[in-house]
Amino acid sequence: MKLSLSYKKILLWSVYLVLFFHITNASSDSISINQFLQDSETLVSNNKTFKLGFFSPQNSTNRYVGIMYNIQSQSVIWVANRDKPLQDSSGTLTISEDGNLVILNGQNKTVWSSNISPAVRNSTAQLSDTGNLVLKDNSSGRVLWESFSDLSDSFLQHMKLGTDKSTNTTNLLKSWKSPVDPSDGSFSAGIQPETIPQISIWKNGLPHWRSGPWNKQIFIGVPNMTSFYFSGFELVNDNTGTAYFSYSYADQGDDAVYDAVYLVLNSTGFLQQKDLYAGKNEWEVTWATPANECDFYGKCGAFGSCDTNSSPICSCLQGFKPKNEEEWGKGNWTKGCIRKTALENERNNSNIEQGTQDWFLKLQSMKVPDSAILVNSAEEDCESDCLRNVSCIAYSYYIGIGCMNWERSLIDIQKFSNSGADIFIRLAYTEQEHKKNNKVVIGIIIPIICSIVIAILGYFSWKLLAKHRGRKRKSDFLSSELFPRYYKLKLARDDINQVKFEDLPLYNFDMLANATDNFHQSSKLGQGGFGPVYKGKLPEGQEIAVKRLSQSSGQGLEEFMNEVVVISKLQHRNLVRILGCCIERGEKMLVYEFMPNRSLDAYLFGCFSEYFLDWSKRAIIIEGIGRGLLYLHRDSRLRIIHRDLKASNILLDEYLNPKISDFGMARIFAGNQDQANTSRVVGTYGYMAPEYAMEGRFSEKSDVYSFGVLLLEIVSGRRNTSFDQDNCALSLLAYAWKLWNENNIVKFIEPKIFDSSLEKEVCRCVHIGLLCVQEYADDRPNVSTVLSILTSDIAELPTPKQPAFTGGHASPKQESFRSQGSVNADSITILEPR
Ligand SMILES: *[C@@H]1O[C@H](CO)[C@@H](O)[C@H](O)[C@H]1NC(C)=O
Ligand SMILES: *[C@@H]1O[C@H](CO)[C@@H](O)[C@H](O)[C@H]1NC(C)=O
Ligand SMILES: *[C@@H]1O[C@H](CO)[C@@H](O)[C@H](O)[C@H]1NC(C)=O
Ligand SMILES: *[C@@H]1O[C@H](CO)[C@@H](O)[C@H](O)[C@H]1NC(C)=O
Ligand SMILES: *[C@@H]1O[C@H](CO)[C@@H](O)[C@H](O)[C@H]1NC(C)=O
Ligand SMILES: *[C@@H]1O[C@H](CO)[C@@H](O)[C@H](O)[C@H]1NC(C)=O
Ligand SMILES: *[C@@H]1O[C@H](CO)[C@@H](O)[C@H](O)[C@H]1NC(C)=O
Ligand SMILES: *[C@@H]1O[C@H](CO)[C@@H](O)[C@H](O)[C@H]1NC(C)=O
Ligand SMILES: *[C@@H]1O[C@H](CO)[C@@H](O)[C@H](O)[C@H]1NC(C)=O
Ligand SMILES: *[C@@H]1O[C@H](CO)[C@@H](O)[C@H](O)[C@H]1NC(C)=O
Ligand SMILES: *[C@@H]1O[C@H](CO)[C@@H](O)[C@H](O)[C@H]1NC(C)=O
Fold first, then answer.
1. Does residue 5 belong to any structural domain of this protein?
2. Residue 668's pLDDT band (boundaries 50, 70, 90)?
3. Distance separating alpha carbons of residues 507 and 548, to the nearest angstrom
4. Which of 246, 271, 290 is the last residue of a domain?
5. Is residue 6 assigned to a domain?
6. Which helix (H) or strand (E) holds 16?
7. In the prediction, which pLDDT does 710 show?
8. CA angle 739-616-599, nearest 5°?
9. Which of 152, 626, 651, 771 is 20–30 Å from 20 (CA)?
10. What are the residue boundaries of the Protein kinase domain, all occurrences included (predicted)?
11. Closest CA to 80 of 32, 37, 123
12. Average per-residue pLDDT in the chain?
């Protein structure tokens, strides 16, 4: 598979090359003074991804100069002379005497110019591998102009959308007028420097769509946007006028399933994500917004809420009524709603009686209204601070953003089926009326019902307990009973339903039973969190590992198969391969390639001391795990957060290459929620990031945390989890941190592997490990960064901050973290599959 992919790629590029030599005689990527690019010629970027040349849109004879992907189907990402087309093919592109990049028509008149001043004597324009056309001063190398600071309708990796004060540029996407006319259309998209930035699409300058605020990982108003989905996204905001957004995808090498991804604002005002899968020649639209009626800005007017699942889609918030009943009834909602009862400060009697204060109505899973004000209040003060401020009419608290307030009006509210934020709307005391009535009912009836229920429950649980006691020992091993439901990591873009089952071999039950000696205890390799694993041998001699899944997946058969097929497509040299599966007799089994050597923990922590791993092997293992993880995180079709990365899940092949196992299990064991947030935590104590263990929030960065722990274990040869016993109450992380602060990291390194010539390299590894286990997810590097610093010699690494769980001197922040009523580290229900 891997081979055929790269083969395909080579083939693809050779096709490009052949085409390329046919149509052009200039194979350069740059143009200098006194050189001319004729209509029939192109500049091609060094690695052949992009080309610059003349083109006509479909059904048009106008000629434009643009940058496009170097593939057969036309995909223009930037146009120079957007509103000044050439009428014929006599145009040329050149560098003029004043150093400008210019387009000349047949009469040598300038049609378009890069418009730099003052003039430079000698400049060169070069098309880079990122698709950026850069005009440089030849003598100083200074960048005079670049196409990335004058965007058209396409948003590529490394572009910056928004304002960058350091270069004095503000970038907007501007839609084409129509598919045949690249001149400025009615739509634009960008980011405005606000305290809580968001992406907006404007139609003729008025808001048309907005993403909702950025919480440092996702835009919270985009449903299904999870941090791992858009993992390469970055938003820089320094609150002094610089706020821009950019993204990058990691280089996937030979394992790539796509060649390119970009976003485009099309002429009808939709922001689309387009993917080009490896070996294909057509772009696929994998995401687009606005996605439904409710996504259009202010669909239901002020104080109106939009819900695609109700009819009509618009309703006034509780406590509000339509401003104009007649128009509202006709479906013209834009005028919005008004308050039924004035708030306390709007009432004229200045002395408000006790007990007639305003209150807050809670709305769950909402797209928060536009124009949020960021307030410097703690979570617990957010409500009271809002109540105290007469102009505050709503508040919301969101992790990663903080306390938000609204004034005057609430516009562009939407109800999501899941995800979104909880918002609290300020209402007058009297709007509470029906709530009070409820209270009476609740006050009498609830206690009666409760006592009945308790009595019944008590009886049954007593009976159950009695019955259960006999089986307890057994069920401790059966993780199916303990195993919480995983949240689904399903992504909207995935074409899971189109997966063909033929792609995955189905094994029949008898065959696997024979191969494993009827699942005999002696062929059992181990017991994972998802069920036991057996070693087997197929009739033709191939050795396999069979994982018999416990029954907790709760998925339909087709759904299960879909997941398995999709996961089995993930192939990477650092992932264990899935060979097929079996679904028969109520059993679900996965068949894997067999790994002759054991898992990493056996090598690191004892038993196999004869197979001692020296530093060079350890370094290879660390890098391999990193590469496997990067593939899981950054694969474009399926972003997978492993969530249980640990030494026993790293298997070693015959050459001691590491292979990550149990990946994708979270998908198979998924529930129906899309949030990257779970109230039940699964993982292994010692490897779980604090935000995951305590708040159930997982992301790429929680895997990075586990990777950091693993890295420290590999270097020190000591288990994080068992550390407490042999080193009086200091965890491995705390120990590493202590030695780091004492400047004595050498002591941390396993003595057997230590060699003073390696000191620098190994210490660097510990340094990286400490960066990965920092308490705040934002501080941790992502896997691609980790890999690049592991494999290169970047001299300056940032200084790590204190890791989580070190105890002792907790910072004030840590204290509030604990006092939020979250679970204490010791009391988490921990599953530690062996
Ligand atoms: C080009 O013209 C053909 C025939 O008139 C039409 O079907 C097609 O949609 C046009 N394409 C575009 C992009 O307008
Ligand atoms: C335009 O300029 C080029 C190069 O300077 C020259 O060869 C050509 O004759 C000129 N064409 C016209 C129409 O002036
Ligand atoms: C541009 O610079 C090169 C040397 O870098 C020099 O030889 C050439 O004369 C310069 N051209 C002009 C027009 O100044
Ligand atoms: C060319 O370079 C760009 C940017 O570095 C990269 O995204 C792309 O994958 C490269 N293409 C090839 C064929 O190497
Ligand atoms: C300008 O610089 C580029 C690359 O540095 C070089 O290839 C080119 O020959 C130079 N042009 C002139 C006119 O010096
Ligand atoms: C940005 O523009 C301002 C005024 O327009 C100017 O003072 C400043 O020097 C510029 N900064 C840069 C980096 O070009
Ligand atoms: C989000 O995901 C759910 C379930 O996968 C899907 O039904 C819904 O249409 C998605 N929403 C959007 C806006 O893509
Ligand atoms: C713009 O994108 C939307 C959503 O993908 C699509 O329905 C529409 O046809 C596109 N418009 C044009 C002109 O391509
Ligand atoms: C809706 O109301 C607005 C403003 O009151 C008006 O301009 C518009 O024509 C109305 N639309 C419809 C479909 O009635
Ligand atoms: C409050 O008093 C002002 C003038 O005294 C009046 O115009 C306004 O309507 C009153 N508001 C309410 C809610 O009674
Ligand atoms: C609350 O009060 C402060 C000043 O006291 C003011 O600046 C702010 O805009 C008010 N409104 C909200 C919603 O915080």
1. no
2. low
3. 13
4. 290
5. no
6. helix 2-23
7. 93
8. 85
9. 152
10. 519-805
11. 37
12. 77
Residue 427 near residue 360, CB atoms below 8 Å: yes
| d(CA 59, ligand 1 centre) in Å | 6
* Greatest distance between any 2 Cα atoms in the chain: 98
Cβ contacts of 276 within 8 Å, gap of 6 or more: 69, 71, 258, 259, 260, 261, 282, 283, 284
> Do 320 and 339 touch, CB atoms closer than 8 A?
yes
The verdict on 415 and 300 lying in the same domain is yes
CB of 140 closer than 6 angstroms to any ligand 5 atom: no
Indicate which ligand has the atom closest to the C-alpha of 294: 7
The residues that are catalytic are 644
378 falls within a domain: yes
Rg (CA), the chain: 30
DSSP class of 684: -
- Specify whether 456 is located in the same domain as 553: no
Question: E strand or H helix at 337, and its extent?
Answer: strand 337-339
Its domain, for residue 145, covers 21-150
Q: Tell me if 334 CB under 6 Å of ligand 9.
A: yes
Contacts of 436 (CB under 8 A, 6+ apart): none
Ligand 2 atom closest to the CA of 36, numbered from 1: 4
Ligand 10 atom with minimal separation from the 347 CA: 13
Strands 421-427, 524-528: pairing is unpaired
The residue among 401, 333, 391, 390 whose CA lies nearest residue 368 is 401
- Measured in degrees and rounded to the nearest 5, phi and psi for residue 632 equal -60, -45
Q: Cα of 422 to ligand 11 centre, how many Å? A: 21
Residue-wise pLDDT tens digits, 511-565: 888 898 888 888 888 776 667 888 998 888 888 999 887 665 555 666 677 677 7
Rounded to whole angstroms, how far apart are CA atoms 669 and 583?
A: 15
User: Could you tell me if the CB of 74 is within 6 A of ligand 1?
Assistant: no
Residues 36 and 134 in one domain: yes
Continuous segment of H or E residues that includes residue 736: helix 732-741
Q: How many domains would you assign to the chain?
A: 6
Residue from 377, 390, 392, 395 to probe ligand 11 pocket by mutation (most atoms less than 8 Å from CB): 392
Write out pLDDT tens, residues 740-752: 999 888 888 888 8
Model confidence at 305, pLDDT cuts 50, 70, 90, reads: very high
Query: Which of the pair, 423 or 235, is modelled with greater confidence?
Result: 423
Alpha carbon of 303 to those of 51, 320, 556: distances in Å? 49, 7, 41
Which candidate, 232, 243, 78, places its Cα nearest to that of 166? 243
Going by alpha carbons, the residue nearest to atom 4 of ligand 10 is: 348
786 vs 728 pLDDT, higher one? 786
Helix count and strand count (H, E) for the chain? 18, 41
CA dihedral sign, ordered 164, 170, 175, 180 = negative
Residue 176 lies in a domain: yes
- Pair 451, 558 in one domain: no
Nearest to 179 by CA among 266, 250, 80: 266
The H or E element that residue 526 is part of is strand 524-528
Q: Tell me the percentage of the chain whose pLDDT exceeds 90.
A: 26
**Where do we find the tokens 């896997």?**
783
Q: Looking at residue 42, which CATH number applies to its domain?
A: 2.90.10.10
The CA-atom distances, in angstroms, between 261 and each of 2, 77, 275, 490 are: 21, 12, 4, 20
Give residue 124 CA to ligand 5 midpoint distance, Å: 7
β partners of residue 174: 188
pTM of the model: 0.59
Looking at residue 442, what is its pLDDT? 53
Of 151, 8, 157, residue with least CA distance to 80: 151
Q: Rounded to the nearest whole angstrom, what is the distance from the C-alpha of residue 190 to the centroid of ligand 9?
A: 28
* H or E segment and range at residue 448: helix 433-469
Q: Is 138 in the pocket of ligand 3 (CB under 6 A)?
A: yes
Q: Answer yes or no: do 223 and 338 share one domain.
A: no
Taking the centre of ligand 7 as the mean of its atom positions, its distance from the CA of residue 556, in whole angstroms, is 19
> Is the beta carbon of 348 within 6 A of some atom in ligand 10?
yes
